[in-house]
Structures are given as structure tokens and as C-alpha cells.
Amino acid sequence: MISFLDFEKPIAELEARIAELRATANGSELDIESEIDKLAKKSAAMLAATYAKLTPWQKTQVARHPQRPHFLDYIRLVFTDFVPLAGDRVYGEDAAIVGGLATLDGRKVMVIGHEKGHDTPSRIKHNFGSAKPEGYRKAIRLMEMAAKFGLPVVTLVDTAGAFPGVEAEERGQAEAIARSTEACLALKVPMVAAILGEGGSGGAIAIAAANKVLMLEHAIYSVISPEGASSILWRTPDKAADAATAMKVTAQDLLSLGVIDGVVAEPVGGAHRDPAAAARALADAIGRELAALVVRTPAELVQQREERFLAIGSL
Amino acid sequence: MGAPRTGTGTLKRGNRGRLPDVPETPPHFDGGGVSSTLYLLRLVRTVMSWLSKVRNSLSSLSKRDTPDTLWMKCPSCGEMLFAKDFEANLSVCPKCEHHGRIGTQARFDQLLDAGYTVLATPKVPENPLNFRDTKKYPDRLKAARAANPFPDALTNALGTIEGAKAVLGVQDFKFMGGSMGMAVGEAFVAGAERAIAEKCAYIILTAAGGARMQEGILSLMQMPKTTVATRRLAAAGLPYIVVLTDPTTGGVTASYAMLGDVQIAEPGALIGFAGQRVIQDTIREKLPDGFQRAEYLHAHGMVDMVVHRKDLKGTLATLLGYLARKEVA
To answer: How many CA atoms lie within 13 A of B195 on its CB side?
Structure first.
């Protein structure tokens, strides 16, 4: 059962009406199939029309939808033979970032990403996808291992941001993020990053300084959350929708700014309405990027990655 | 200390009639020898200086044009200080050693030998997002430029530090909170590249609230961009030294500010990734004493040393002596 977002209310009402009619039809001789059919078509058209012109703030809500597929869903749906690897060898194991060896359509890779969890116990286990220094240090360790064994790196980004806590600060959250970004830039193997849901600031870029960066159609990627920007720049919590628009957080905006390289189409109504289709589309897009990158030399890969980021802000 | 003052100042509360602190090192420490004579001389000088301060201040009380800028209150201990004394003391409070925030020019003057060259700030696309919050971004930039001597928050100079060549970058908190947008990122890269061309160290003094939100994702992208530059310095075998000053937080801390070969912090500087209010709201507990201050980071292994401003130039010179690239004969 899909939970509807506020702006989907008209669609939710139609769906409820259809369900009601179906229940009635089952218990009667009345022929209302054609009526149900008509309503179902109307609902589908409304869904498509709504999702074709989502505002940045609506996309923010879709990107954070509790049923949106997360890292482990993509692992289950399109990766095979996943071997999770744990721990930073310094302090601990941070389940907010999951990583390991995996096969994507026959290609062996190192896959690393944020996992938000899907219910209360798993959300707590994964700290809602907000990683601590040990998560980033694990990512560094896995990236270096990938380079050592010639495996391309695939990162799946989905975080509201790195965890803001006393212990995270004490253990060097800033340093861990800086070193993780540096580790991405140093990779002598291909690296493709995909923003699945939320690309939240430093906590995202730490594993997204890649050769190619993709975004799902309704994902967002931002230097600060729209709520955060609202309270700092507008000095009120009520301007998040304006902030989301002003900061240009959508995949479409970021493609036109040249910050990302491709947008992966989601099923109509968002990835949560058909996770398998979303995962298939993502796997195909990552596969295409990897195929183009694996033929390049290590030096070319490093250089392309450096130039990609040096160009942002240069005249 | 001791120079007669001719300014026009009003005495503010807490100062008039307050006896000066006597110099440190009482005579008995040295068995009453030479140092006790020096101590007496210093004591006399301190008292004279205090008397002249009081006299000058009293004589000026009748005057109307009394600029407030002559006196200032230490933001940390509340001590009333002569602004000129404070500046002469490198903007460090003589009473509590609070290290005040200072501008780019003062930093260059304090750390570089005379005859340095200020490097041009690279131009970048302005207002790429056509951003406006309660004000238009170009209006904020215009106001910041009118109030500051340099066109954005990071300025580099090429010079020497006790004879050792270096490029020194200074981030100025007064310019939009030192925030890192494309201009800061581009200036950082230019500073590092100049250091590579000159085969010398790049030293950066950081100060920033974080990324410049008015440039959205483009400010976030300055994190990997500046990291490309630190990697190139490393590949060239050149020292990259970071001096963390008050305050250094957010995306700046989480990129070039934490990647130095040597990490120095100024005493008391606020240094962190997340803001204290955000942390407080997340954990709902009282933050530990001294949390995210330079000394706290030192105790947690995040910086090599906390260095008093009066010793900073000497420390940098010593480090350059060890780390600077040796010319191949």
C-alpha cells in the first residue's frame, strides 16, 4: 500500500473511490467495470501529469518518501553475489554506509552507499543514513581496496547529511569527509556515483566525487537542506519551498548547470511505485557509464575527474 | 605600551581608577638580582603608562567628538581596551589572551616579510543561480565589497616568511562570513597553483561559516575542487600548511581546512563540521566544555598544535625550514 504525499491528495481520493467501487462490484450483479476502468485511466493520467511537473519542494518530498527504494533495495534488485565488508579498522562499524563486493550485470564492482532503513529498527540500525567518521573511513578503505584489485567503484548516495553529533565531531567528522573526497579523486579505477534520493551536502560529496555523476529523476542534491537554508537565509522555517526552488536542487537543474552527467528516468509516480523498474533503469545507466570508463587508463581517469571539478566555477 | 596618547576618548565603565596589572615575574624569583631591577623599572613604566592613559582620557571628557572606536571591549572577558593597544598586540586581548578576528591585510602584515605581493583574485561567474533570498545575491556581494578591501573572501599573497618563500592565502570572515563560493574555490586553486609554479609552500588561514548558500550546489562542488589543488601540491612535494582561525566550520572544514601536512589552530578558535545549535538540537544534551575549540581538537588529535598569534610567524618559518623543497643541485 502506497502512502500518498500531500500534493497527491486528488490521486489518493480517486484511488479510494476505485477501491470502493471494486468492493461494491464484488458483492453485486452490477456491471461497473467500465466505470472503474474510466476512473483508473483518469487516476493514471493525473499521476503522470502531476509527476511531469513536480516543483522542487515536491521532489524533495518524493526523494524522502519513506517507501522510496534505498541502497539495500537496489542491492537486492539488480546486484548479485553481494559480499558486504564492514568496519573502518580504526574505531567501528557504521551501518549508515554499507559497502562491499558485488556484481552488476556481470561486471564485478565495489559498491558503497548510504542506507537509510525502511522501518524503525532498521532506521535506527542505519542511523537514518547519516554517517559518522567511521562510515567515511570505511568508504575510504573500500575505495582503496577497489583500486588495489582493479574493481570499478559504484556509489549510491542517499543521505540527509553527515551525522551532527558530539562523538562524530570528536572523531573528526570534517577530516573523515575531506579524506573520503580525496580518496574518490585519487582513484585509479573508474568511479560512477548515483544520487538515489537525497544528496545532502558534505555527507554526500564525500562519496560522490566521481568520474560520472547520475541522479534519479526525482532525487535532490544540495549544499544544505531547504529547511536549513530557509532558517538561515530567510530566518524562518516556513520558506523551505522557496529555498528548494532558489537553490536549484533538482536533477534537471543540476544537469543544466553541468554538475551532473545524466538523469535516470523513474517509473511514473516515482521509484517507490515500481522499485524493480527504477532499479533496472539505474543499473542500465550505471552499466553504460562504466563501459565507457573501463577502457580509459588510470591516469586518464584521474585527470578526467580532476578536470571535471576544476571546471566548476572557472570562467 | 608607554607611548603618550593624544586621542580623544571617553572613559567607559570599569576603567577609570582601575589599577593596572603589575608585570609578571616578581623580584624574589631571581634572588633579587638583575631581574628585580628590571622588574622595578617595568613596574614604574606600567604605572606611568596608566597615569598617562587616565590623564589623557580625563582631559578628553569635555570634548564632544569622542569616537567610540577608540575604546573597545574584549568580546571574551569584557575588559575595556584601547583599540590601538589591542591592534598593536596583534588583536589579542592582553588580559585574557582572546584572539580577535582580524582582516586579510593585517594577516599579511603580521606574517609576511615586508615587500610581499598581493595576488589578484580570480574572476568567476557571478550569481550563476540568479539567487535571491530576502535580498538579491548581487546586492549582498556589492555590500560586502563596499565594506571590504578585497573582492571576495579569500585573498593570496606571495612573499617570504623570515626569508622562506611562500604563498599565503587568507580567508576573511568579514566578507559574507568567509563563505566558500566559486570565488573562494577558484582563489584557493590559484594560490596552490602559484605555489607550485614558485616551488614553494601554500599556507592557508581559514575562517568561514561554511559554504556560500547563495551559490547552492556550486559551492558544495568547491569541496572536491579545492581538494584537487591540495593533491597537486602533494604531488609536487610541496608543503601545504593549514592555520585554522576563528571560526572554521562546515564545508570548509570538511575539505581543504583538514588536509594540511601540518594543522595549526589559533587559541580558542571554533573549529567543527556541524554547527553547535544543530548538534544540540540533534542530541538534546548539553555540549561539553570547550567543545569544538582549538584546544579540544588538539586533545582529540585533530590538529598538531595550538599556536599563540605572537608565535605564529616563527612557527611557520620553522616548519618551512623543515618541509620546504630542497633545490636539486
So the answer is: 35
